[in-house]
Amino acid sequence: MAAPVIITPNVGQESVWDYPRPPRVEPFHGLIRVRFGGVLIAETRRAQRVLEKSHPPTYYISMHDIAAKYLKKADGESYCEWKGIAKYFSLVVDNKIAERAAWYYPNPTPEFAVLKNHVAFYASAVDECTVNGEQVRPQPGGFYGGWITSNIVGPFKGEPGTEDW
To answer: Tens digits of per-residue pLDDT, 99-128?
Structure first.
């Protein structure tokens, strides 16, 4: 496979190709909001942001900042070589359901212990995810949960032809 054509970031932008591998987790104090079914599901200025080479940032929100009554445990799990075993939540608001719309690490690895009691949401599964008021685009491919904003440039893992990155 051909090497990706990396986009050069402009002033004020970040390239996902400058992110580390293995990934890094860092505090994010910007405003994060998640809406589904006409309800504000989450709002915080104390998210954790995971940065990994070729991926847009993934934002993890403390359970303290989530309307947990809309979260329902979902079947299944997945494994991340860096963070450990992930479990899933579906969102249920009135009669509207988003299956496996969010995930969390009940017992993250020591390097990612700060993610315990935090939840990440798939932007493609909810009505709206915003970072500092900007509507995000979901990371391509369906499996990954990164959020793309105007200050993040790629190309991004998940796009067609990126399976071997």
So the answer is: 999 999 999 999 999 999 999 999 999 999
DSSP conformation letters of 81-115: TTTEEEEEEEEEETTEEEEEEEEE-SS--GGGGGG
Write out the E strands in the chain: 14-15, 24-28, 32-36, 39-44, 47-52, 55-62, 71-80, 84-93, 96-104, 118-121, 128-131, 134-135, 137-138, 147-148, 152-153
- Read off the pLDDT band of 143 (50, 70, 90): confident
Output the pLDDT for position 123: 98
Residue 23 CA to chain centroid, in angstroms?
Answer: 13
Set out the domains of the chain in order of their start, with CATH numbers: 14-153 (2.170.150.40)
